[in-house]
User: Fold these one by one.
Assistant:
Number 1:
Amino acid sequence: MALLSVRDLEVRFSTRKATVHAVNQIGFDLESGESLGIVGESGCGKSVSALAMLGILPKAGRVTGGSVEFGGVDLLKLPDQKLRQIRGKDIAMIFQDPMTSLNPVLTIGRQLTETLEKHLDMDKDVAKKEAAELLERVGIPRAADRLGDYPHQFSGGMRQRVMIAMAISCKPKLLIADEPTTALDVTIQAQILEVLKNLTAEEHMALILITHDLGVVAGVCERTNVMYAGKFVETAPTAKLFSKPRHPYTLGLLKSVPRLDAARKERLEPIAGLPRDLRTLPPGCSFAPRCLYATDRSRAETPELHTIDSDDHLVACWNPVPDADIPERHSLEDPGAS
Ligand SMILES: Nc1ncnc2c1ncn2[C@@H]1O[C@H](COP(=O)(O)OP(=O)(O)OP(=O)(O)O)[C@@H](O)[C@H]1O
Ligand SMILES: [Mg+2]
């Protein structure tokens, strides 16, 4: 049995003017110790999917269908209090904006020990020692000396590390990290991704890494789901996604990942057109208006995920990208920004 099994998850927002189709029947399985990337442009529904899974959608949002089984229990059917227990301990989330999750008037040490005392029943001294060890694990130098510091005394990269330390303090079975490195420079980003990667290996923790940057998942996630307009449009082992992207949107994302290889300066190609307005979803493929491969069928009939090339590679497209159109440059050994 998978650790996490999401089926047909659907989320709607009711606003005064319209209904927003934020998440449209997404599904996936995740095993213990496995890492999954969810990648797509701003507004495609990544954060909302995660919040819906954990029962913490903003007020205007509601789950209108689907199931989210964690260890065989549907989280969407659990009473609030039970769900809160699971969120505190078995599933941890790193939110997109770290300052909203850190308390500015409590020291870093106190924020860490509070969780340890509450969820793991540690006494004060043990918790303090554990807090220092956690900070050290995520790469904060002289951690024991920094327990008395406040969040504003830490740099952005360090705050992000503290967030990770807090998230892993109760040894969760699943960590959901929403854009954990977006605001950081490339070197710090690489270090933090390395921390996350090591944690999945050492603790056998499952990881969902949410990002708009395909380069970020390259070195970290075994599998990646590409999201467009609230749907998964392609899912494959990450290496395959880089070597054989079959959805035109995935190809577009790849072409917009910068390379570190300075020898061949290629032009980055942004994807033309605007993301889909989620207030109206006409029939047909949501990407069709921006797609070079679109045909009349794409505009009339919605493509569903189906296997292509191999059993572990799925794409929702009537006209998958042919081999001849895949530039050679994209291999996992050279993922670009990561
Ligand atoms: N409180 C809300 N009320 C109405 N619509 C919302 C609300 N929150 C999110 N949405 C809509 O849901 C959709 C998905 O938003 P979401 O935050 O999941 O995007 P995202 O993929 O995480 O983007 P980003 O990369 O910018 O974080 C968007 O179209 C957004 O406008
Ligand atoms: Mg988001």
Number 2:
Amino acid sequence: MEIEHFTWLRTHKARYDVSSSGVKPIPLDDVMKLGEAEDFTENLVNIYGVNKRNLAITHGTQEGNFAALTALRELGKVEHVITVIPEYEPIRVLPRFLHLRQTEIVINESLTELFNYIKKNSVLFFSNPNNPLGIFLSKKLLWELSDELRRKDAYAVIDSIFLEFVESNLRDLPMENMIFTFSTSKFYTMSELKVGWVVGDESVVKEINGIVDLVSPLVIDLNLKYVSILIQNRKWVRERNLGIIMPNVEIMRKIIKEAGDYVNISYVEYMPILYMRLRCRGVTGSYFSNKLLSKDVLTVPGQYFGKDDGIRIGLGSVLRNDFEIAMRIIMESINEECAGLHDPTDADS
Ligand SMILES: Cc1ncc(COP(=O)(O)O)c(C=O)c1O
């Protein structure tokens, strides 16, 4: 088995690399200057307003996803997994890998489409906000989802790695029949270390803790210390991240306005990624990403999210000067490819 998204990232390099969906890592020395470490589990109890029994510590979000789906399988709670397209490839692949029956549904504007698939022993498994589109279920909708799942005896595993970009208050998330997975990989980024955590339904979290103990017990204390400092300084991290992301968003909006006819942008405020659909006939995301590579710009084609209709561009891992050059190259290439070929009837298909 292969996660092609990772192969793409590992086998390509470019001067203008906007392939990452995270924010520039925070150097460990800067983390140390922010304060003292506390008990990380206590930090989580306070931030999420939950009980320790609702918490598991992992090494990353994907480990949390793996443990959550496996836990539900062990508990006999999964007959059918529902995933969406477009979606982060490891999420789409995991149910198949576990030999679970899977249905993939295509979403366009909203994740609420998922509500139609709730049945006894179904598990909704999705990223919220969605990678690559950024669309997300608000807290109010998450409560409605939890109510509906409880009524129908179904569950949701929600990869929430991007949640803090769009939601600063993490209290009052619904716990019943819900599992949320998190890590430091996007919002609290450090290149030297990583920690993950799971928040959710007590009975499932108990099983998750058992699975983590089986596969990869005990996150190293030093990692927990750094993440404890960062998570206590969430406001600082937010400001710092937005200081990188928002100037790039402004540049993106300016450049798209200048040459907007051939693209359609999916961008949700404060997210570190945008998805650019190409509105010119015959030009796929992978063709276009390869063309950009020849001009020293690295993006991620839609192919790796299940729909090859555009490219994902990261907004948080390069500073404005490089981002502007990357965007100009992207728009120039679109004009080269699409001028004369634009088919407006394709626009919203
Ligand atoms: C939706 C989603 N989940 C999980 C991950 C990876 O998380 P981790 O490194 O914590 O396993 C990514 C990385 O891009 C992601 O986009």
